[in-house]
Amino acid sequence: MSVFRTRAVACPHCAAIEERSVALSINAARRRDVRAAIIEDRFQRFVCATCARDYSVEGPFFFFDPDARLWIGVYPPRWETSWRALEAELQQAFRSSMIEFAPEIVRADAGEYVVRAVFGLGALRDKLVCFDAALDDRALEVLKLDLMRSAELPFDAATRPRLTAANGALTFDAGVGELRVERPLYDRARAAAAATADAWRGAYVDAGRVLIPGGDPRPVR
Ligand SMILES: [Zn+2]
To answer: Where residue 1 falls among pLDDT bands split at 50, 70, 90?
Structure first.
């Protein structure tokens, strides 16, 4: 079931408060329209009535796709400094709902699920595009770190590349512009991801694991 609620939201530009309908939880198998809006970068975009600038509301919400076997916690980007606590909480929630207190029919499928913690709608889109193209997101994050190190891009979490399309070549939004990467570079990153598998264990599979300490306490909403 998908759940939306009206919430008081502050415009990030001028701080004016407005009532907006925002997602608490999305079942993407039933709401293909919402899934498409996320991929097309038009989900939860609003224009402020006071300053006329646009902004997105980037969570928190829960994104569930039982067809694609995805269980994703979506958090506001400013919460990313608490990724360690949020990743642990999300994994515990998954274990409770899908294993410990789940009926046998649900539990039987639990092992097929990908559990991810993401920060912001760009990071969610990145995961959906990645899994749609049957790519390994750990390899993709290794590739991003390679791209950032190769001096083409700043080594900075704020301008991490985000995957926007994968049709043969991979297209990233790299903060400073669009970046196209040929498939063999991804294939090379797969070997590196396999060799460093321990570093990518957990629900937060993002170059931020390396770039952001993440030890802040869990934010209060
Ligand atoms: Zn405003």
So the answer is: confident
**Interval between CA 17 and ligand 1 midpoint (Å):** 8
Cis peptide before 12 (omega within 30 of 0): no
- The pLDDT tens digits for 157-208 are 988 999 999 988 999 998 778 899 999 999 999 999 998 888 889 999 999 9
The answer to whether residue 221 scores a pLDDT higher than 80 is no
pLDDT at residue 38, rounded to an integer: 97
CA of 98 to the centre of ligand 1 (A): 40
| Strand blocks (E) in 60-205 | 61-65, 70-75, 114-119, 162-167, 169-173, 178-181
Cα–ligand 1 centroid distance for 18 (angstroms): 9
What's the CA gap between 215 and 16, in Å, rounded? Answer: 31
How far away, in angstroms, is 13 Cα from ligand 1 center?
5
Q: Which of 61, 74, 60 is nearest to 25 (CA)?
A: 61
User: 40 CA distance to ligand 1 centroid (A)?
Assistant: 23
